[in-house]
Amino acid sequence: GEDGAGKTSLIGKIQGIEEYKKGRGMEYLYLNVHDEDRDDQTRCNVWILDGDLYHKGLLKFAMEANSLKDTLIMLVVDMSRPWTALDSLQKWASVVREHIDKLKIPPEEMKEMEQK
User: Fold this and answer.
1) Handedness of CA 44, 48, 114, 82 (dihedral sign)
2) CA–CA distance from 79 to each of 10, 61, 86, 93 (Å)?
3) What digits encode the pLDDT tens for the residues 43-63?
4) With 80 as the cut, is the pLDDT of residue 19 above it?
5) Could you tell me if residue 17 is inside a domain?
6) Residue 53 in contact with residue 92, Cβ under 8 Å?
7) Which intervals of the chain form a coiled coil (predicted)?
8) What pairs with residue 40 in β-bridges?
9) Environment class of residue 5 by beta-carbon count within 10 Å: exposed (0-12), middle (13-18) or buried (19+)?
10) What's the whole-model pTM score?
């Protein structure tokens, strides 16, 4: 999402952190997730890409071909400016698609992931 869309704020709220500092480039955070059904805890890695397209090359560190099937991609928009939401979603979806295309994942594997 764009700068100021609330990416870091959203993760901070999920973590229960009131004061958080916005990073530059790509931030790394993690969430401890408790599965009540199995009484198990796991760590969910979170990478937040800066809202400047200049940093899109950093996606290679967060999204790799071997782990893409276990990856959730979240696009965040600034709802204080709803008239920009569609353009922002299209722009960032295009950035993600461009990166995934560079991973050269076999078509049958991509189709399987898309159907999940």
Assistant:
1) positive
2) 13, 28, 11, 17
3) 888 999 988 899 999 999 999
4) no
5) yes
6) no
7) none
8) 35
9) buried
10) 0.80
First to last CA, the chain: 24
Specify whether the backbone of 61 is left (phi greater than 0), alpha (psi in -120 to 50) or beta.
Answer: alpha
Tell me if 2 is assigned to some domain.
no
Size (the chain), residues? 116
Tokens 């200049």: give the residue: 54
Decide if 55 is inside a domain.
yes
The range of the structural domain enclosing residue 72 comes to 7-115
What is the identity of the amino acid at 2?
A: E
Total of domains in the chain: 1
Q: Is residue 1 part of a domain?
A: no
Q: String of b and e for 15-42 (b: at least 16 CB within 10 Å)?
A: eeeeeeeeeeebbebeeeeeeeeeeeee
pLDDT, tens digit (0-9, with 9 covering 90-100), for 90-107: 999 999 999 999 999 999
